[in-house]
Design goal:
With 232 residues, this protein is an all-alpha fold. It has one domain. 71% of the residues lie in helices and 0% in strands.
Length: 232
């Protein structure tokens, strides 16, 4: 039991690895400083990976995103092989990784939205379900509606896991992880409400589109960007 708890604590710490912050520090220069300053101003509003595209370029953002996926994937593979953890504890570790990624106890301004870490967890424990979700997300990117596609894709994981007879612990993990993703999206929703958007609409836009307003034609929603109120 004690060793299992250590693996669980380690999972949370692994999740907190701030890939975006490390990339900004390594890159340095005006771009790195601008990224850190913008992250402080927009805490809870915008995913650091998106800020990295603006300030450091897509290569740096992609590298940080890959690290965020791999950290969960590798940790769970090691926990299963070396720690001999049963499915219940592996599921708990998966939740802890996403929790650490989305709600770290340090560098909170550079915390991710949880999607990359969740993808790594699912690739380790629910690979086929994650691949299906990935297809949905890719279709959404193609249609320029990535926010809604991400919501649908990640919501499909617990459903398909249950239908395919995956362990109950993994199904419950996927439900909780989806809840964490939604909770992270709702950070900063108070500012949207104060700007004049009705509370139900603001919550719906954040949870469904990961945006502060409904996407307009030609926009790419789902990137946590602040949009003007769409009306009362």
């Amino acid at each position: 039991m004690a060793s299992h708890l250590l693996w669980l604590a380690g999972a949370y710490l692994a999740g907190t690895l701030p890939a975006a912050l490390l990339a900004a520090r390594v890159r340095g220069g005006a771009g790195g400083r601008a990224l850190l300053a913008e992250a402080r101003r927009q805490a809870g509003e915008t995913d650091p990976h998106i800020l990295m595209v603006r300030r450091l370029g897509p290569a740096w953002s992609t590298a940080a995103m890959v690290v965020d996926v791999v950290k969960g994937f590798i940790y769970l593979l090691i926990a299963r092989a070396a720690g001999g953890l049963p499915s219940g504890w592996l599921a708990a570790c998966g939740i802890a990784i996403v929790l650490g990624h989305a709600f770290p106890f340090y560098a909170a301004r550079m915390a991710g939205r949880g999607l990359a870490a969740a993808a790594g967890v699912y690739l380790a424990l629910l690979p086929w379900q994650m691949m299906l979700a990935g297809v949905v997300i890719l279709i959404g990117l193609r249609l320029k509606n990535s926010g809604l596609a991400t919501t649908i894709g990640m919501a499909s994981v617990p459903v398909t896991a249950a239908l395919q007879g995956q362990p109950d612990a993994y199904v419950a993990m996927a439900v909780i992880v989806f809840g964490l993703l939604m909770a992270r999206r709702l950070e900063g929703v108070g500012e949207v409400i104060r700007s004049g958007v009705p509370t139900p609409r603001a919550v719906l836009f954040r949870c469904l589109f990961d945006a502060s307003a409904a996407p307009r034609p030609g926009e790419v929603p789902g990137r946590g960007e602040v949009s003007p109120p769409s009306g009362p």
